[in-house]
Amino acid sequence: MNVRTVCLAILHFKDATGYEIRKLSAEGSLSHFIDASFGAIYPALARMETEGLVTARIEPQPGKPPRKVYSITESGRAELLAALSAPMAPDTYRSEFLLVAICAEALPPDVVAAALDRRCAQLDEEIAHLSSLALKGKSPPAQWAVNYGIACKTAALDYLRTHRQALVAASGTGRSALPADCHDVDVMAAASAPGAIEAAPPVSPVLSEVQSR
């Protein structure tokens, strides 16, 4: 997903400044889709303003410099619809935990066990966070996204708890963690592919966060 689409998606829900768009894409809901820098956002907004996809207005602020607020136009909504209707790129996922798992044979059992415990604790926290969002009565699409995130993370947590001992038992055998044929590296890549049990990206309710601002 490119910067233009992210900017238009945010403006679809609410007018925003470049700073607010950056905040959402770096720390908010849309950080799960793209991490857009100020250096990318402002040129994209300027180009879209020239193309008539967004408009901008200057709003005074007491005791502060005026701010430039962007709004989406009907042409911008049409471009957003076209962009979101196009085939999606595959999800990407990176996991330090999976690297520990694939290298388990070269690690002491207590190190592997500690990594499993930490990952389970992280998933517990993430599920609790998403569950708290689910209680706030958000829109149906936002609720759907929250429930999807809970389902993915719950499945991952169940797998880790059910198969924890198998990974611990395989650790510490002294085998090279990265064999010459790289077969295990291919396995790790497959495990990180979309649809893998531990590969679900963090899901956050985009609609709820944008609409609440």
TrEMBL record:
- Supply the alphabetized keyword list: DNA-binding
- Kindly list the GO molecular function terms attached to this UniProt entry: DNA binding
Q: Which InterPro entries match?
A: Tscrpt_reg_PadR_N (IPR005149), WH-like_DNA-bd_sf (IPR036388), WH_DNA-bd_sf (IPR036390)
Give the domain of life. Bacteria
Annotated Transcription regulator PadR N-terminal domain residues: 8-80
The identity of this protein, by name, is DNA-binding transcriptional regulator, PadR family
